[in-house]
Backbone:
């Protein structure tokens, strides 16, 4: 696979991994970096953008849900978890990269009508740091084989 195709595959897997679909993009990032170490920053930026856009698609799903009070009244449910997200606001989306809860945080942020720009910036920051840690670990492992 050439450089352009590798970056496209990374962007696609990063986007899909951040949606409600199962999947992970870390292995694709490592594969791209092993094959093309000079693409470090391009790969990190594309992975971050793709993963953030995927998270924002979950945010949009949350925005399309009925408002909190109407849904809780209909279902008789508790708002404890949502109150936790609401209490922390957009900074909680620094954790949007985490397995299982990350998608729920993005949907909850949309549902709670957290400012979309703040949500996107905190999502991107958390996702970038995660990819940076993965890239650093991959570099360390690759260096040990040389």
Residues:
């Amino acid at each position: 696979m050439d450089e352009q195709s590798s970056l496209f595959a990374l962007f696609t897997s990063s986007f899909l991994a951040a949606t409600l679909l199962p999947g992970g993009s870390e292995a694709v990032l490592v594969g791209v970096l092993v094959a093309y170490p000079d693409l470090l920053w391009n790969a990190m930026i594309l992975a971050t953008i793709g993963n953030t856009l995927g998270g924002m698609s979950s945010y949009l799903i949350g925005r399309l849900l009925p408002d909190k009070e109407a849904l809780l009244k209909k279902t008789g449910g508790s708002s404890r978890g949502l109150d936790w997200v609401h209490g922390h606001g957009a900074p909680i989306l620094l954790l949007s990269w985490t397995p299982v809860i990350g998608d729920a945080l993005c949907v909850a942020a949309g549902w709670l009508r957290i400012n979309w720009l703040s949500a996107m910036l905190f999502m991107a920051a958390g996702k970038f740091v995660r990819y940076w840690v993965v890239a650093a670990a991959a570099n360390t492992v690759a260096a040990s084989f040389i």
Notes: The chain is about 75% helix and 0% strand.
